[in-house]
Amino acid sequence: MKITTTAVVVAAGLTISAATALAEVSGNVALTTDYTFRGISQSSELPAIQGGFDYTHDSGFYAGVWGSNVEFETTEVNMELDVYAGYGFEASEDVTFDVGLLHYQYPGDSNSNFDYTEIYGSVSFFDATVGVNYSPEYFGDTDAYYYFYGDYSLALAENFSVDAHAGYNLFDGEDSFSSFIGAESGDDAYVDYSIGVSTEMDAIGLSLAYVGTNIDDDDCKAWCEGRVVFSVSKSL
Predict the structure, then answer these.
(1) Nearest to residue 40, comparing CAs of 2, 93, 78?
(2) Are 99 and 113 in contact (CB under 8 A)?
(3) For a surface tag, which of 23, 30, 94, 166 has the fewest beta carbons within 10 Å of its beta carbon?
(4) What is the DSSP pairing of strand 36-37 with strand 40-41?
(5) Closest of 30, 22, 21, 18 to residue 204, by C-alpha
(6) Is the pLDDT of residue 20 over 60?
């Protein structure tokens, strides 16, 4: 999802009347020029429509669902659907923790074994967030995988910020990484990053970012090349 980062989409939510005052439901929809996840295009560098719903409770529990169109050359799968649940809590006024479980599904995938599950945890302090995700069997059956990341958002003016992200993708050996990118490689890890700006105008979120990886272009075709991604989002 892309709860992290990952997609360079400005979160846009609107609270809807819920059954009790302790819980609320929010929703968002977005259009992005390229769905990038951990630096790699999931839509073959084409636009994507995305959206989801979240349930949150005052206790800190939350759950949700999120979806996006995708396009991969090796399969006819054209949709990603994520389901997640977690718990967030405050340690102090400036420090919060978040832990949860996230399942990625690709309806229609019968041969590639794209579906996988991650356990995640993060801590946010002031304007920064650091976290880690772990999957025992990552995308395409590429065995164990770890994702370490950091995000920083600097507010320059009302409703305007500069956003930075860096992530370290660690695979269980060279064979797993080569299988993941579809080419032989002597590495077992790669770095993804992004830098951009985001704002909100008339309840519409706007973001512009440069997204890239340190993967050799010859190993990953154009999907891993640096690119500019523009996203527009709105509450439902």
Answers:
(1) 2
(2) no
(3) 94
(4) antiparallel
(5) 30
(6) no
